[in-house]
Write a structure and sequence with these properties.
- By secondary structure, this protein is an alpha+beta fold.
- It has 2 domains: 148 residues, Gcn5-related N-acetyltransferase (GNAT) (Aminopeptidase); 118 residues, Aminopeptidase (3-Layer(aba) Sandwich).
- It has 9 helices and 12 strands.
- A 12-stranded mixed β-sheet has the order 1-2-3-4-5-12-6-11-10-9-8-7, with helices on both faces.
- Helix 4 links the parallel strand 4 and strand 5.
- The protein is globular and about 65 Å long.
- The protein starts with 25 loop residues before the first strand and ends in a 7-residue tail after the last strand.
- 31% of the residues are buried.
């Protein structure tokens, strides 16, 4: 699976040149010893910008553990003068060959000093190093719609919004009246030691036709699923029909909240209420633990109608993000 390539985006941009770093600041690659401090900085920024945080050290650890990600090459940390505290962070991950996804954040008190532009330039230069044989590369970056500093920076540097994503939530103050499960479908819990590859195959096949989908080998997917602090097999649920697994819902604890990382249903079994039934099962499991808020993220333009399913079970949008993309050509000197 490869990402869809928009046909209306110009591919004549050049990577940004890196502006000078203001005196006193230090730019360096992060190390694992920095992980907790960087996560704390990101959480503080999220709370300041949005009133709540949807990030923690476990997510950052997961990002640093991805395939094709080298912490010394693909991430940058800016620390403040004298205090050595993180004040800005960015990364560029080669999500698929020659296609990079970037992330960056600058602490509020240090914005307006060129740090965001500097980190964006570093991410673009990294993507340029991974350009294909014709010098073509692209880089993506997400930004909340309500964070003007980030959206303005990206648009001023040649990025265009190509997709919109929603963060959705539901409150679970008490028991819910669960929606019915189709008569020929049953929902059960994940069985460690038996279901791992089956879940992977359903994940792979149910998302194969989604915009921007990228296939991962089982080993890479498993490392990014089972070896992380958030993994909790008791919050994974499988839908079975006709003797096979046709849907999966993968949940995880997230601080005081719960989070649904994946809802996938195989194409022939969609639009039968399976996704909603799996969600209700997951909500009940969270509620049994005393968790009263559950979140998930969704592509608002998802062709399967996933967003409408989430709305029907009572979830609402609490924040929107745009995916910004920049394509550029790296001019390569002819061989010889």
């Amino acid at each position: 699976m490869t990402a869809n390539h928009p046909n209306d985006l110009p591919a004549d941009e050049q990577p940004l040149p890196a502006p000078p770093l203001l005196p006193g600041y230090t730019l360096r690659p992060p190390e694992f010893d920095d992980l907790e401090r960087i996560a704390e900085m990101i959480v503080a920024c999220d709370i300041s910008d949005a009133g709540a945080a949807d990030f923690d050290a476990g997510i950052l650890h997961q990002a640093w553990s991805r395939e094709r990600f080298d912490l010394s090459r693909d991430a940058w940390l800016v620390v403040a003068p004298e205090t050595d505290q993180p004040v800005a962070y960015a990364e560029a991950w080669e999500r698929e060959p020659h296609r990079y996804t970037g992330y960056g954040i600058v602490a509020g008190a240090h914005r307006g000093r060129g740090l965001g532009t500097l980190l964006l330039a570093n991410a673009e230069q990294r993507a340029a190093q991974g350009a294909d044989v014709d010098g073509n590369a692209w880089t993506d970056s997400f930004a909340p719609h309500d964070l003007a500093d980030a959206t303005d920076l990206l648009t001023s540097c040649g990025y265009r919004a190509v997709r919109q994503y929603w963060e959705m939530e539901i409150s679970l103050p008490g028991p819910r009246q669960q929606s019915g499960t189709p008569d020929d479908v049953s929902i059960r819990s994940f069985r460690p030691g038996q279901d791992e590859r089956t879940v992977y195959e359903v994940w792979r096949d149910s998302f194969a036709d989604h915009w921007g989908s990228v296939e991962h080998a089982y080993e890479d997917w498993a490392a990014g699923s089972f070896e992380l602090p958030h993994f909790d097999p008791s919050l994974w649920f499988l839908a079975e029909a006709s003797g096979r697994v046709v849907g999966i819902t993968l949940g995880e604890p997230f601080g005081a909240d719960g989070h649904i990382s994946t809802v996938g249903v195989l194409s022939p079994w969609r639009r039968r209420g399976i996704g909603a039934a799996m969600l209700e099962r997951a909500f009940a499991a969270f509620r049994e633990r005393g968790i009263e808020r559950v979140t998930l993220g969704v592509d608002s333009e998802n062709a399967t109608g996933a967003a409408s399913v989430y709305e029907r079970v009572g979830m609402r949008v609490f924040r929107t993000y745009a995916l910004f993309r920049k394509e550029f050509v790296v001019h390569v000197n002819p061989a010889g």
